From TrEMBL:
Keywords: Membrane, Signal, Transmembrane, Transmembrane helix. The keyword Signal applies. The keyword Membrane applies. The chain crosses the membrane at residues 448-466. Pfam families: BatD. This is Protein BatD. Residues 1-20 form the signal peptide.
Length: 589
């Protein structure tokens, strides 16, 4: 019997060891390649029961579902098969090759890890439509559109793309965030910031819709041919109506998160014509005015004058250099200072581009500044245009004469002259001065002396008065608390305005503003912030009943917002209502 027991123990440990060595812990994904607007299912499956399952961080993804656990026990011909699965639904946040790192689990004291899995995330793709899917219903009521102002511009000609989010009347959007932004790799681009999102009434496919302009971007194509504008992808929290109704006959809504993308737009960029293209063309495209100016035309040797070269108009002002002037060698020219006053709006760049040269003549004479020109392509006329500067003559009246020659109005070449005698070379320098002796004034017993002597003594009573008022201000505990609460109320109401569109942060900031306003006006503490207590105190202060009701309704809106979604329109209405109610209460209190 002892031998049989010993054999059974050996068989048990052997089978346990073999069983432990057969642990399989794997990662399975629903697809290895997906669009940024699609979701990915990830299952971590183990064939033995374990403890302490630890999922990876899912870097680059957002967990939109899970973890879901499923256990399977199957008996096949007397052989028991066990499987446990931990499932997650992931939404990619960026494009590229993303890695799902190792998950861990402990079985019989041993730690097992899954192999990492790589997933390729591409741009948004077309998702099959299912009319019974709530997500599909939401996408039927929300559309992201990219509107392009020109589909066939010239290279370096401005056009714009405007992204609009259209929402059906019965659908409510509480929040959105960008998942993927277009890169505009073949364009010079600049975004026009939206200071505040406004809601407009419009149409989509002939149906009435509301829409919000999310982004405006000005583009200048840098390549010719067919270029693609990559789509903008958003994750949108939306509430859509269902076919179910409540006891009052109103349609019930369902909250869901969807990913939508604007379609890819293709534009055909035309090359500039080669016929009639000037040799000195540097890439300027637009409609410009060219000018060359000097701040003075007459001066002495050693003095400086400013020579400015400027281009003003509308076009790709930031994308081409200014022409450089050619000046006589007897003029000392310094590096130019650039001054750009360029603004960018939906129509493109416009403004002034300017370079100013500091020029110092060394010798007496007359210096013509040769004409030079600027060429540009005007897309309005489809032709190259040239503008030439005016003739400018600078006269240096006093100074030494260049022994090698002097520039005259006749041209750039110097005329041969004889060497100037040494005794007349510096005649232009003045040797006599008109200096006057400075009048001496005694300081002792002067006005300054008496002011500095008795002035500090006169400031002592003033300093005592200021100190007394500061001490009284510091000892006013109640007043300081009221002023501090009033300051915080204004601060938090300002914070609420900045968070319009972010439901959670907006209502937290507004609730704090309302509470601090009550602390300032009613001199109460946070523990007394019940609606019944607030109503009683406001009635005791003879506040109008309608104003009290509106204030309490604002507090209730802040409470309801924690559990129900609110649209941007509702948040804007609550903010305007808070400003109006606080202003009314100030007058009545």
């Amino acid at each position: 019997m002892k031998k049989i027991a010993y054999i059974l123990v050996l068989i048990f440990f052997a089978s346990t060891t073999v069983f432990a060595q057969d642990v399989q812990f794997d990662t399975k994904v629903s697809k290895k390649k997906l669009g940024i607007n699609e979701r990915l299912r990830v299952d971590f499956t183990v064939n033995q029961d374990g403890d302490g399952f630890r999922p990876p961080s899912f870097e680059g993804f957002v967990v939109v579902g899970g973890p879901n656990q499923a256990i399977s026990r199957v008996s096949n011909n007397g052989k028991l098969t066990y499987s446990k699965t931990y499932g997650y639904f992931l939404q990619p946040q960026e494009r590229g090759t993303l890695t799902i790192d190792q998950a861990e689990i402990t079985i019989n004291g041993e730690v097992y890890k899954t192999p990492p899995v790589n997933v390729v995330v591409t741009a948004a793709v077309e998702v099959p439509k299912d009319p019974n899917d709530p997500t599909f219903l939401a996408k039927e009521n929300i559309h992201l559109v990219a509107e392009v102002s020109k589909t066939s511009p010239y290279i370096n000609e401005a056009f714009n793309v405007v992204y609009k989010l259209y929402v059906a009347p019965e659908t409510s959007v509480s929040n959105w965030r960008e998942l993927d932004s277009p890169k505009f790799a073949d364009f010079w681009s600049q975004n026009i910031d939206e200071k505040q999102f406004k809601i407009y009434d419009g149409e989509y496919d002939g149906e009435p819709y509301r829409y919000v302009i999310l982004r405006r971007t000005v583009l200048y194509p840098q390549k010719t041919g067919k270029l693609e504008i990559e789509p903008l992808s958003l994750s949108v929290a939306v509430s859509v109506p269902t076919n179910r109704r409540d006891i009052f006959g109103r349609r019930l809504t369902k909250n869901t998160n969807i990913t939508i993308s604007a379609p890819t737009r293709t534009i055909n960029v035309k090359a500039l014509p080669t016929a009639g293209k000037p040799d000195d063309f540097t890439g300027a495209v637009g409609d410009f005015d060219f000018a060359v100016r000097t701040d003075k035309n007459s001066l002495d040797a050693g003095e400086a004058f400013q020579l400015s070269v400027e281009i003003q108009g509308k076009g790709n002002l930031k994308l081409f250099p200014l022409p450089e002037p050619t000046l006589p060698s007897s003029l000392e020219v310094y590096e130019p200072e650039s001054e750009d006053r360029i603004r960018t709006n939906l129509a493109g760049m416009s403004g002034l581009k300017k370079e100013t040269y500091t020029v110092v003549p060394q010798y007496k004479g007359t210096y013509p500044i040769p004409q030079f020109s600027f060429t540009f392509f005007n897309p309005n006329t489809g032709k190259y245009e040239r503008q030439t500067s005016e003739n400018i003559i600078v006269t240096v009246e006093n100074g030494p004469t260049d022994s090698a020659g002097t520039i005259t109005q006749g041209g750039d070449l110097p005329q041969q002259q004889s060497v100037v005698a040494a005794d007349t070379q510096f005649e232009y320098i003045k040797l006599k001065t008109n200096l006057q002796p400075q009048k001496k004034e005694r300081f002792f017993k002067s006005k300054s002396f008496w002011a500095l002597t008795f002035g500090p003594l006169l400031l002592i009573p003033l300093a005592m008065i200021v100190r007394k008022k500061r001490m009284a201000y510091a000892n006013d505990v109640t007043g300081n608390r009221i002023r501090k609460a009033d300051k915080l109320a204004r601060k938090f109401l300002s914070a609420a305005k900045k968070n319009l569109g972010n439901q959670k942060e907006f209502y937290i900031a507004m609730e704090r503003a309302l509470h601090n306003y009550l602390k300032a006006k009613l001199n109460i503490t946070t523990s007394e912030m019940s609606k019944d207590r607030i109503t009683k105190l406001l009635n005791e202060r003879d506040l109008e009943n309608a104003t009290t009701i509106e204030f309490i309704s604002l507090l209730e809106s802040c409470e309801f917002a924690r559990y129900t979604p609110a649209s941007s329109v509702a948040m804007q209405q609550d903010y305007d209502k808070a400003v109006r109610v606080i202003s009314t209460m100030d007058k009545q209190l």
